[in-house]
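About this split. The held-out portion is used to measure sequence recovery: a designer receives only the structure tokens and must propose an amino acid at every position. Recovery is the fraction of positions where the proposal matches the reference. Here is one held-out target exactly as it appears in the evaluation file.
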């Protein structure tokens, strides 16, 4: 892994941290894109995976998927 890949890996780590365990986020050294895998209980049976070359685009796609699958309502539900 070269220095640029290490920077991208750290960016992926930061995005994952921001999402507080709701996603696993990786930098693909071979694919040259970021990958995010949803890991919340309400994820559809076939899973949710998003990818993007830019971390801001990835984050935006993650938010869109969370809205689409009503994750935010589940995450922030009131007892």
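Reference sequence for scoring:
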């Amino acid at each position: 892994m070269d220095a640029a890949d290490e920077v991208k890996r750290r960016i992926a780590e930061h995005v994952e941290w921001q999402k507080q365990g709701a996603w696993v986020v990786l930098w693909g050294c071979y694919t040259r894109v970021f990958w995010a895998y949803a890991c919340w209980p309400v994820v559809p049976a076939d899973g949710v995976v998003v990818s993007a070359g830019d971390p801001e685009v990835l984050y935006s796609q993650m938010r869109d998927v969370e809205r689409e699958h009503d994750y935010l309502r589940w995450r922030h539900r009131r007892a």
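Annotator remark: The CA atoms of residues 21 and 57 lie 19 Å apart.
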